[in-house]
User: Fold these one by one.
Assistant:
Number 1:
Amino acid sequence: GLRRCLISMDIHHIEETFQEIKKTIQAKDTFQNVTILSTPETLHSIKPLDVCCMTKNLLAFYVDKVFKDHQELNPQILRKISSIANSFLYMKKALQRCQEQRQCHCRDEATNATRIIHDNYDQLEVRSAAIKSLGELDVFLAWIDKNHQGPSA
Amino acid sequence: AVLCISGGLPKPTNITFLSINMRNILQWSPPEGLQGTEVTYTVQYFIYGQKKWLNKSECRNISRTCCDLSVETSDYEHQYYAKVKAIWETNCSKWAETGRFYPFLETQIGPPGIALTTDERSISIVLTAPEKWKRNPEDSSLSMQQIYSNLKYNVSVYNTQSNRTWSQYVTNHTLVLSWLEPDTLYCVHVESFVPGPPRLARPSEKLCVRTLKDQTSAVKV
């Protein structure tokens, strides 16, 4: 069967980095009635078999879209975001290698969940969408932590 | 709802969630300068991503400065906001609002249950995982271990005679401390720990037990 591709990176270091800027970032998000990750329809419906693909898709979402669209003026916060972005880049490449070894298969479930997230993002003005996505990093990191426990690939 | 002049009072302060084992209590301090006066408070809460603020009927026009929102925030994988305003005669404050509250990452994990048994040179420790808060005592229990599969325990042991303390992290629920001194009082306290973003910890009460007297020296007499 398809061997799960597990991220061996220390997610807790990223969680701690985000924890330091979370309150500030979330305070800038004034649209409380909208979420980007919409977890009940997306992350919470992902089966173990689709964890790798979903992780890869969401890392790409953050690296290729969110971090690029977000404009940060505060140098301390910018430093933390850059640190997180670099970690995501590293994880994205690791999962890319997994895909090349045909161990990160993408089924409709992960593809549909990813599309919901992109649709949510595109419905907001880009700066608001980026800050909201950053504010939901704790949800994504907690999901990675929960789903990528176990012996690494 | 009684109409009041909004902004006529300063806002309540220090509004935050105190969360232990998913029991989520909203708490705040009276507005500056109004301690001791007959101010009342009204609370609302919001589920992140939903459409509107919701009332908490048991926390309308209350005089205490806390409100149990455990039921309303029981889905620990959602995130929430809460807000409170002060009312005094015909004046009321603007809303004071919490940041985004994420029970799954922010709840404090209470200490485990601890049972100690001892013989001459060892102490056996049996830990029972803390339980998630439940609305009714007769509701089925959910262990915090079922929510946090990577839950660990930091066991600290203190030798009251040598004044030495040592600790170790364990994941399973039974632990035997060996090579101890006979007839010595040892005290143990345990803290639950979940790897991840830092969260406040709730150490257990200290539990002390004395190892038995060394039977071999007793026989020589």
Number 2:
Amino acid sequence: MAVTEIEKTNRLLLIGSFAVALPVLAAQLPEERADAMYHLYDGGGVTVSGPSILVRKQFGESLSASANYYVDAISSASIDVVTTASPYTENRTEISASVDYLYGDSQMNLGYTSSEESDYSADTVHFSIGQDLLGDLTNVTLGYSRGSDEVRRNGDADFSDEVTRNSFSLALNQVVTANTLFALSWETIADEGFLNNPYRSVRYLDASSPTGYSFESEVYPRTRTSNALSARLRYHLPYRAALSGEYRYFSDTWGITAHNTELGYTHPLGDKWTFDLSYRYYTQNAADFYSDLFPRIQAQNYLARDKELSSFSSHSLGFGMSYKLHRESWKLLDSASLNLAYNYLYFNYRDFRDISQSEAVGQEPLYELSANVMRLYLSVYY
Amino acid sequence: MQVITLSATLLVLTSLAGCAVEPWVKPYERAKLADPIMSFSRNPVADSYLNHVYQAREAARGAEVGQGGGCGCN
């Protein structure tokens, strides 16, 4: 039942970003490293935690392979769950593997990811090819991902449906000056199949109910296509520190338009410590078929009351610190680092009401959510 | 259609790779760009996780950090 809290429709993107996390330096394979991370999300009655292990190994001069094992252990008593269902716990396990191949000024990446939980299975393949251009000042990468998901519903053996996802991406990385890097990225994603949540309900006015409203199952369109365009800038200050800026524009065929912008600052202290500070702002409008309270049962063909499809804005304040470990006597390792990253998230919903509060129907206070997100990890380089 | 546009763009840009373009940032001027603090994604595992959190809480998706290749500054 993690489907209530973990947005399935976006899983492909996580997989894609893992698979093409190429190094900043061109015509070079990703560095050999292993990461062991513990992650924790705690907010809005939902706790998600677990390990993530990533190992990357190089073979010869032109081949590199990586494998990742990731677990989400979910415990949910979210606003959706406490108002329409029962709290639950669940695990999601994700395994992925990818290969990077370097040929001259070209890089190729092939990856596969499998995600499994009690009511959802997802398999994705990814391929990307990149080329250095213009005296190695420019890199262009083209990517494609295809995902095949199976959606089930716990407690209903008769229900099963499918989702197919196709993603196309184009990324441009550019050296602008001796201090400045610029990146432009575009991605189109097309989904087809059962895209809503098999558990979630919408509410509608119902004079015969003591509360003044009742619930019915949500219904989404079976297709969704989205476009995202992002621009990033990174600037090395005259002293050893970096400033970063980012903007992304998003729109989809469900009528949602979103913008997010982020500013960051990275500051090393001596040769052991590195500190990161960041602030991110995000805003979106609602899907065409979203309503917090529909006027009657089956008021329209498509119905949604998912707060992620409502109109809202959010803020994210991030802090990170990293401590580098290095001993000349180490035989097998070059170095290691111990890292802690924390984000405070705050969501301000403009049209999603907290119906756990007893107020007149449609007059309940607007819902707010804050969350703590933590990553603690050890990285070793060899 | 979008796939064709993408492929054509890549083809044109790839064909430029053979052109003798004088790099305006010389290799010996790229020390700052090669500093790890200039990486768009210094820690892929932690960055992917945060993307995952944003994707779970927001409708927007795609074109996240970590996509795409290098900066050509080696």
